[in-house]
Design goal:
Blueprint: H1 2-21, H2 29-37, H3 43-46, E1 55-57, E2 63-65, E3 73-79, H4 88-99, E4 104-110, H5 122-133, H6 152-157, H7 160-163, E5 176-179, E6 185-189, H8 198-207
Parallel strand pairs: 3-4
Antiparallel strand pairs: 1-2, 3-5, 5-6
Length: 208
């Protein structure tokens, strides 16, 4: 019994000495060195595409960054002045007036892609829409919305791999995309789904 009590402090001292002399293991200084040298992912590398990355031109050719609409719900529509669906402009204005104070903005993008039904350009488009349908929501420069020559915004809107939600390219004038307050794709509506549709109103209400 005497020998056991004598040996115990000696053994404990040897253990302490061994630990002090042992190089840092993977759970000590080495792991700190690895962590310090490991690159961290930046927020940019994790960011996904939104409509805010795009810049478009207004009817006067002035560049407009869509990031100015951050925090808004957006209804993006390709318009035309000589289409059978052109009267939808009146309904789009009505929906804009109904919800704009709650954060909705309608964005109109004239296009001549379908049946050559937008022969006007620039200010003439704005004058037509305002005079005939009372349009006050933002209208932009005439763009291509389909095919390989589609403008960058519409390439994003129609490609699920980029917008993360839908693959739905415009099939005709007045195709509609609904964007949430963070700039993400939320839903789309075919040309024949008019602005007075309960489906559109319910979707907008869910985002406001």
């Amino acid at each position: 019994m005497y020998n056991r009590f004598i040996m115990l402090p000696i053994m404990l001292s040897l253990v302490a000495f061994t630990m002090a002399c042992t190089p840092a293991g993977p759970n000590q200084k080495n792991i700190e060195t690895v962590m310090a040298s490991t690159p961290t992912l930046s927020s940019d590398s994790l960011a996904k595409e939104t409509v805010y990355q795009f810049t478009v031109n207004d009817l006067y050719g002035k560049a407009v960054s869509l990031d100015q609409y951050k925090g808004k719900v957006l209804l993006i529509v390709n318009t035309a002045s000589e289409c059978g669906l052109t009267p939808q402009l009146k309904g789009l204005e009505a929906i804009y007036q109904k919800y704009k104070d709650r954060g909705l903005v309608v964005l109109g993008f004239p296009s001549n892609d379908f049946g050559g039904q937008e022969p006007l350009n620039g200010e003439a488009i704005g004058e037509f829409c305002s005079k005939n349908y009372g349009v006050s929501f933002p209208l932009f420069e005439k763009v291509v919305v389909k095919g390989k020559d589609a403008c960058p915004l519409y390439q994003f809107l129609g490609d699920r791999e980029r917008n993360g939600k839908v693959s739905a390219k415009p099939m005709w004038n007045f195709h509609k995309y609904l964007i949430d307050r963070e700039g993400n794709m939320f839903d789309y509506f075919a040309s024949t789904t008019g602005p007075d549709s309960d489906k559109i109103h319910q979707a907008i209400e869910s985002l406001l």
